Structure formats: C-alpha cells, structure tokens
Amino acid sequence: MNSPEWSYALIGSVGSVICGSLSAFFAYVLSAVLSVYYNPNHAYMIREIGKYCYLLIGVSSAALIFNTLQHYFWDVVGENLTKRVREKMLAAVLRNEMAWFDQEENESSRIAARLSLDANNVRSAIGDRISVIMQNSALMLVACTAGFVLQWRLALVLVAVFPLVVAATVLQKMFMQGFSGDMEGAHAKATQLAGEAVANMRTVAAFNSEAKIVNLFTLSLEKPLRRCFWKGQIAGIGFGIAQFLLYASYALGLWYASWLVKHGISDFSKTIRVFMVLMVSANGAAETLTLAPDFIKGGRAMKSVFDLLDRKTEIEPDEIDSIPVPDRLRGEVELKHVDFSYPTRPDVPIFRDLCLRARAGKTLALVGPSGCGKSSVVALIQRFYEPSSGRVMIDGKDIRKYNLKSLRRHIAIVPQEPCLFATTIYENIAYGHESATEADIIEAATLANAHKFISALPDGYKTFVGERGVQLSGGQKQRVAIARAFLRKAEIMLLDEATSALDAESEKCIQEALERVCSGKTTIVVAHRLSTIRNAHVIAVIDDGKVAEQGSHSHLLKNYPDGCYAKMIQLQRFSHGEAANMASGSSSKRHIDG
C-alpha cells in the first residue's frame, strides 16, 4: 500500500540512519569533552574545548537537517498510508450487502471507530516505528563498534549488562505510561452511554432523564476507577524496581571502569567514552523494545483492516459477468415463489412461497398488518437481500443477472423514515443525481409540495438541515425525500409509507403529485392508510408470508366481504368515525360551556 511513496521512505531511511549515528557521535564528543576537563594543561584544555565546541555546532546542524529529513519524509509516508487505508476500508464497507450491516459487530459507531483507529494504528506500527527502529539500529551498530575499538574489555562487560539496562528502561517507560491493559476497553461502556445520551438529547430532555444518565454514567465508571487505582499501585512499584535495576547496572559499569583505570589497563579518557557511548545505545535499544506494544496493536489493526478488505460481499454491486440494464426499462416486477428470512434471524420466516406481480406502468399497493413483510418486498426489489429460494424478476430477467448499480439507477425510493444528510436542502434533493440543474431541483420540489416551505426559509434551498435533518419537521423531511425520488425520473417507483408523516392537506397535494409523476410508471406502494391506495390498479394483501387477497379495491370488497382487506377498511372507518364523534362532542361541549 505504501509502494507509491518508496522514494520518500528511502530518503527518510537515510535520515534515520544518519540521526542514529549522530546520537552515538554526540555521546562520544560529550565524553571526550569531559575527559579534556581533567587535563592539567590549561592551554591544551582551551584549544581542545574550542575544537569540540565547533564540532558540536556541526553535529547539531547536521542533526537539524537529518532529523527534518527523517520526520518530514516518514510523515509523508505515514499520512499517505493512513489516507489510503481509510479510503480502501470505506470502499470495502460500502461494497458489503445490507445483511452485513444488520450484524451487531457492524453497527455504524463501531465501523466509524474502525475507520478512525485501525488506520492510525497501522500507520503507527509501520510508518512511524520503522524510522525509530532504523535510527536505533544505526545507533547500536556505531556505538558497539566504537566501544570495542576503544576498550574491548569494558565494552564486553557493558554489553553483558545490556539486557538489564534495556529491561529496566523498557519497564520504566511502560510503567510511566500505565502497564495495566486496555483502559479504552474499560471505558467503552461509559463512552457508549455518553454518546447515546448526546445523540438522543431531545428524548433525554423530554423525559427529564438527565440525572438518570449521570447516575448510569457514574456506575459505568466504577470498574475503570478500580482498574486505574491498581494501575497506579503497580506502576509505582514497577517504576521503583526499574529505577533500581537501571542505576545498579550503571554502578556496575562505572565500578569496572574504575578497576581498569586503577590497574593501568585503560585510561580515564577511553573508559568514560566507552561508558557514555554504550549507555546511550542501551537507551536506544530500550526505546526500540518499548515499541513492541505498538507492533502488537498494529498487528491487530492490520488483521482487522485486511479482514475487511479481503471480505467478499455476498451481493456484488459490480459483478463482472452481470448484464448492463438497458437505457429504458418497461418496469414489470415479479416475485416468483419467494421464500425469505433475514440473515440475522434465519429461524423467523418472512415469506413462504410468495408470488407477486406489478405490471409495467401500473400501480401495485401492498397492505397488511405490521410486520407482515411489506417493506421486505421493497428491500428484495432493490436487492438489499437475496431470497432464500425463488426469484425476483424485472422485465422477465432475474435481477441477480443485472448489474446492480445500473439497475438501481432505474429505481426511485421514498422510505418510511426519510433519510437526510447533514448538508443543504439543495444537496439532499440532488443526492444520487448530481448532474441535475437548479430548474430540475425546483421542479421536483414543486411536485412534492416542498417548494413553498423551502422558499420561506431564510436561506431557501441553501438551508442546512442538520444531522439526520433535525432542523426540519417530519412532514418537511418527507417532502424533501419525495422530491429526491421525483428528480430521478425512474421507471420503477417504490413508495414505502411515503405520506405517513404528512398532514391531511399536504397528503392530498402529495397524493395528486404522486399520481401525476407516477403515471405510466411501475409503482409499488406500501400503505397503512387505505384511503391513499383506493385507485391502485392492484391491491395485494400480505398475511402470514403469502398473498392472502389480490385485486382492485372494488374487486376485493365484492369478492372478499369478510376478508382481511374488508376488515381493515371497516376498522379504519370505525376509527375515523370515532375520532369525528370525539371532535364533534368536544365542539358541542365548548358551545355549551360558552
């Protein structure tokens, strides 16, 4: 994935190697300066100190240049990797079938967290850490070479205690950061609770549940609090032990250096140089080892990323062998002997041998009790799910043979719950039809009875609707969604409770608009209000996973006087009559009171 940035990685690697070598050289120069201060000849001391000062200025200048090279070029590599991973992950997520999103582990918040965290963890394990490993590897190589050249005996002893120094430094850094497991996981429940409360703030406020939310949040923080307490105790003890080991190893190295000087085996200048250079390299080795948790985290992140990227979707939107949909469809839709159950609930059948047909250019209305599968028909036609058996056909061809993306261009949907994005009304109407002109947008809004209320807004079509369209009322959101569907001018219209959120007057206007726009198009309407589907060419009553009754409004009432449809008509008439009586009684009471 990072191959396009190979040249940046190469320059960054050169910078890393030189920076590591400069660290060892800096320690060498510093120890040489220290040894010069012990020389009794003042003139020699001043001359040498001046030379080393110029040398340190040169080293620091080189460090400035090569540190800049290292971090600039490795940052370019890392940021491009992060961007590329996120792009590929999102593309892979959007390619998956709807059943994948129904699974609990693929909830929207979790996917968003994966897009954010996994890409960063991959970058930190690969891009950032490689530069540190190269830098510290160069440091150790230069330091060990210099140590064995100057005084091999002391270098041998110091290398022997390297594991102790490295282990002590690693433990020290780990305990300073908190070496007690995944604290993010411990806080996950509290974080989720807070996120849900903020996202549903209107509901929380409406039910005066602020205190309840705070109490639940407090309870969910008790477990992380206990873990943090023990983390502090363990970190404190561990830090003390690490410090002891570190300074004990220093003491051993210095004692042996003094023994060598005492017995004339080496002089002070060489021993102090070897000690300083090797101790600096030990810290570098320790820093490399402290990256182990990042590599483990990065390894997990990479597995998560590639599990997502390598997953083959069960419904491929761009199948190679698929047939492109013609420019114009007749729009005949048929479900033949369809059995279906949702993948997350395979033991709950929705349809059993369902046969349904919407003739080209005609209107098919679906009615039935809640949960009978009316919206599932709409989902199957859009091929959000595959039937367990049977076929869904458009113009006589199984929709599995069509290219899915080109098929969906010929289908317009108004969902039961209108989905608006946090952008302008104009962008929401134009969604999925970016080539539409302003005149097209206004025409669609006018047909949907939305132009009047949009024009009355201060910013008109440029009004931002907020997250999930929160700035608009339910009826306004529905009308914007209907305008979006009108704009597509598709041959197949799917209306899933399209007028459920509208008042009586708006519903009448929309109904007239729908009749105009849907004239000559295949229209499948899901409705609870039976008054809106009286004029449908065919009304299908779905019950117990099958079509119980089918025909026009008059046909159903005539041939099935005691059927489901007739009972639903009577029930709605009774409800409306009772509501009218209540309104009349309320009016009379007000008249008497007056």
TrEMBL record:
SUPFAM superfamilies: ABC transporter transmembrane region, P-loop containing nucleoside triphosphate hydrolases. Its main location: membrane. It is found in: Cell membrane. One of its GO terms (molecular function) is ATP binding. Residues 10-297 form the ABC transmembrane type-1 domain. It comes from the Eukaryota. InterPro entries: AAA+_ATPase, ABC1_TM_dom, ABC1_TM_sf, ABC_transporter-like_ATP-bd, ABC_transporter-like_CS, P-loop_NTPase, Type_1_exporter. Keywords: ATP-binding, Glycoprotein, Membrane, Nucleotide-binding, Repeat, Transmembrane, Transmembrane helix, Transport. Residues 333-569 form the ABC transporter domain. Signal peptide: none annotated. The chain crosses the membrane at residues 6-31, 52-74, 150-171, 234-257. GO terms for cellular component: plasma membrane. It is a multi-pass membrane protein. Belongs to the ABC transporter superfamily. ABCB family. Multidrug resistance exporter (TC 3.A.1.201) subfamily. This is ABC transporter B family member 1.
